[in-house]
């Protein structure tokens, strides 16, 4: 009798795990809760409670990257769903296996309301001037592609875009400045 219970328990656990794996593979291509006011409200609560410490209340990033740009840069709902579920190896972004699929879609529905639209104009400016300004004013605190200081956040992850074949900078575009930043004298 006891052996039968153990077998039934193993079969039940295997079916639950199998259903979870199947559900993760059968994700809809588009968020089924996008635009749903109740889902957006619930997603806002989830974001503020679980994500805002790193990504900021406005999702423009603090320790984590600015996630208002993810759709404009070509990411998909399913791709973001999987990133949030599995985390990002080698970063502070943890895996979230206990967040239900519904909560995940609610979170993405909220983030979609914060998303920036895709840029229509090509970036303008002079890459060499941008590099010069960055090296003179920013590099003593910030790093880009492994070069620079360590006091400020690493700007490789989206705040600056790489450019110029010789130096590793093709284009430097400071997306937005931070008020009250203490600037140390450049080296």
Commentary on this structure:
- This protein has 187 residues and is mainly α.
- It has helices at 2-25, 37-50, 52-55, 77-86, 101-114, 127-137; strands at 143-144, 147-148.
- The chain folds into 2 domains: 29-114, Orthogonal Bundle (Cytochrome Bc1 Complex, Chain D, domain 2); 121-177, no CATH class.
- The termini are far apart.
- The model is unreliable at 18-23 and 158-187 (pLDDT under 50).
Q: Which features characterize this protein?
A:
single chain; 187 residues; mainly alpha; Cytochrome Bc1 Complex, Chain D, domain 2; 2 domains; two-stranded antiparallel sheet; 6 helices; 2 strands; 2% strand; globular; disordered C terminus
Which regions have little confidence, pLDDT < 50, spanning 5+ residues?
Answer: 18-23, 158-187
Provide mean pLDDT, rounded: 76
Strand content: under 5%
Q: Tell me, briefly, the overall form.
A: globular
Major pleated sheet: 2 strands, antiparallel
The appropriate CATH architecture of the largest domain is Orthogonal Bundle
Helix content: 40-55%
Class by SSE composition: mainly alpha
Assembly annotation = single chain
Q: What would CATH call the class of the largest domain? A: Mainly Alpha
User: What name is given to the CATH topology of the largest domain?
Assistant: Cytochrome Bc1 Complex, Chain D, domain 2
Return the domain count. 2
Determine the N-to-C terminus distance: 77 Å
Secondary structure tally: strands: 2
Radius of gyration of CA atoms, rounded to a whole number: 22 Å
CATH superfamily placement of the largest domain: Cytochrome c-like domain
Total number of helices: 6
Order of helices and strands: HHHHHHEE
Q: What's the arrangement of strands in the largest beta sheet?
A: 1-2
């Amino acid at each position: 009798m006891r052996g039968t219970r153990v077998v039934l328990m193993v079969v039940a656990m295997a079916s639950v795990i199998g259903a979870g794996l199947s559900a993760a593979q059968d994700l809809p291509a588009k968020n089924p809760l996008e635009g749903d006011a109740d889902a957006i409200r619930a997603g806002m609560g989830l974001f503020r409670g679980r994500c805002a410490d790193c990504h900021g209340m406005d999702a423009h990033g603090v320790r984590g990257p600015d996630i208002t740009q993810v759709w404009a840069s070509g990411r998909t709902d399913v791709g973001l769903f999987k990133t949030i579920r599995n985390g990002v190896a080698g970063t502070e972004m943890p895996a979230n296996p206990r967040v239900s699929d519904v909560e995940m879609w609610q979170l993405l529905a909220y983030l979609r309301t914060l998303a920036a639209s895709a840029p229509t104009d090509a970036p303008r400016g002079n890459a060499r001037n941008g590099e010069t300004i960055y090296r003179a004013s920013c590099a003593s605190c910030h790093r880009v592609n492994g070069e620079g200081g360590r006091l400020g956040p690493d700007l490789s992850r989206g705040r600056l875009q790489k450019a110029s074949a010789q130096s590793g900078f093709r284009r430097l575009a400071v997306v937005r400045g931070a008020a009250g930043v203490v600037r140390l004298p450049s080296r």
